[in-house]
Amino acid sequence: MIACLRLLSALCLAALLAACASSPSSSLGELPRTPDASIEQLLDQAATSKTPEKAALLRLSAADLAYRQKDNVRAARILEQVQLDTLKPAQQVYASTLAAELAMIRNQPKAALSALGHPSLARLNELPADLQARTRSVRAAALEADGQILAAAQERVALAPLLSGPAASANHEAIWSLVAALPSEQLQGAGTDVMAGWTSLALAVKSAGTLEQQQAAIETWRSQHADHPAAVQLPLPLIKLKELASQPLTKIALLLPQEGPLAGVARALRDGFMAAHFQAQQAGQKPPQVQVFDSSRLTSLDDFYRQAQAAGVQLVVGPLEKPLVKQLAARPQLPITTLALNYSDAGQSGPAQLFQFGLAAEDEAREVSRRARADGMRRAVALVPSGEWGDRVLKAFRQDWEANGGTLIAAEHVAQPVALAQQIADLFQLRQSEGRAKSLQSTVGGNVAAQPSRRQDIDFIFLAATPQQAQQIKPTLNFQYAGDVPVYATSNVYSASGDVNQYNDMTGIRFCETPWLLDSGNSLRQQVVRQWPQAAGSLGRLYAMGVDAYSLAPRLGQLKTLPDNRIEGLSGSLSMNPNQRVERQLPWAEFAGGQVKRLPDTPR
After folding, report:
1. Model pTM?
2. What is the rounded average pLDDT of the residues 301-323?
3. CA distance 412 to 423
């Protein structure tokens, strides 16, 4: 929202400083002039004006002056006194635009769009260019803030011919930012002429995989659209891509522990990483050289980086150990770009050279929030394990869910089986229902046929639990009259064991999971499972992470430069957040009839 308002201010500055001083036409009406008077003088003149139209025009000038002086509360109060039906069309457009600008300052994009829905806006193209620019600017900002990204981009394309100088450059970059954020399916056939050029450029960049392929796609597009604004002036992120493509990655250091408690995890990561490396070689590519270092024998990170620099390493993949990652995050800078295979503490900002990637449970909690929201859910309760892990997962879910308008009614930490029934009864207020039945029996005397009923304001349950806990929870929900409440779970509920009895006990639970465990047809996965059969089970998530670390290695700068790009990996659909942490979005499945059934994807 802040970014929208800054851009809006930049685009509207000229229009705000000087309103049109002449009437577009007699039928459209005179627009407010840049006043020499103060707000008080304008209001006094309005109070003594002989005609309602003149009074309304003076109040409109006063409201606009208050807005330009950043006295937004007063501007809104004055504007409320202006009756739109007393104004001519040009003045109605002016008033509606001002109302929309004030609504955006209050972070109310829907109210802004409502103001801009006035019938007078149908004549916008007949008005002076500066008012058109002002109106289209606030409409574009409101559409973007309301999540209507394609419509916002279209509005900015219409705005572009009305601007010049820095405002035109800012709008140019904003168009690219918007179209780059659209999913591929919305880019196909979106718009005509200039808009179609923008969307085809975004689609070309998204469809290409490596930096080299993206460069080729951009140059092909430019040759086909030589007169397009984006061909004449490439958006800044695409210029940065060209710089990245000129610096190929030739040597990687893989820093993992070969001894200690994490050696088994590291082995799966290493085997997945090297499997992807060998596949690239077999495909005839020229992959970077990989040198393996043992972090369990590390005496000093500084010594390691000196050794790596001497060996010509351009990128470090690792370490895995969280204490080492926290040490790296605490440094002001690193001598070599590093992709850590774990995360530092939440809120700990790292140096510009540090990227972080892991199988974060927080990603899955946010994925549950996204999927439930896409499925139309609004009110949730949560069941999570006791302890630090459960607290982190619940916090991540709560933050994402509530930030996007959802309500978390209650949360329980899963206790021992003996207490589970009571916890679920408390969540669904079953005891209150039983109490009402007993009270009724006491009042009327004799037996009253009354089945306990659960509260009806819960749309779904967010569940983070082990398969063993989930086996107890789902039957308990059925017993407690809540078996019809949808359950959305993290991947922890899935053991990938093929145990039909276990799956039967969890019938109806929906869960997010890595593509590695849901899509057994992937050729690299099949090769790895033949070599290491344990990769077909839950350990496969680590092999998938190793494969994806290899895919990420040459594309870190690409994802940083184009944050709306994604890598469709085997541990999830990967993107980078502003803190240079790789985030995963995951596909979905459901336990049904003793089997795992893949669910259709929802729009992201």
Report:
1. 0.72
2. 96
3. 7
Structure tokens at 121: 């806006």
Residues 31 and 131 sit within 8 Å (Cβ to Cβ)? yes
C-alpha distances out from residue 12 to 117, 137, 229, Å: 20, 7, 21
> So what CATH class is 2-181?
mainly alpha
Question: How far apart are the C-alpha atoms of 96 and 98, rounded to whole Å?
Answer: 5
Task: State both tokens at 525.
Answer: 């996965």
Q: Cis (ω within 30 of 0) for the bond into 257? A: no
User: What are the structural domain ranges in the chain?
Assistant: 2-181, 362-513+590-598
Beta-strand pair 487-489/354-356? unpaired
Query: Picking from 47-61, 350-364, 474-488, 585-599, which range would have the lowest pLDDT averaged per residue?
Result: 474-488
CA nearest neighbour of 53 among 24, 30, 34: 30
CA atoms within 13 A on the CB side of 344: 21
Question: Which residues, 6+ apart, have CB-to-CB distance to 250 below 8 Å?
Answer: 288, 289, 312, 314
Look at residue 309 and give its three-state secondary structure. helix
User: Which residue type, as a one-letter code, is found at position 584?
Assistant: R
Whether 448 shows a pLDDT value over 60: the answer reads no
How many other C-beta atoms lie within 10 A of the C-beta of residue 122? Answer: 10
Considering the chain, what is the average pLDDT of its residues? 87
pLDDT score recorded for residue 604: 64
Please compute, for residue 599, the number of CA atoms within 13 A of its CA located in the half-sphere on the CB side: 20
Provide φ and ψ at 537, rounded to 5°: -95, -160
Distance CA 48, CA 333 (A): 67
**Cβ density class 360-395: b for 16+ within 10 Å, e for less:** bbbbbbbbbbbbbbeeebeebbbbbbeeeebebbbe
Cα 299 to its chain centre, rounded Å, is 39
Domain 362-513+590-598 fold: Rossmann fold (3.40.50)
Query: Contact 454/429 with Cβ under 8 angstroms?
Result: yes
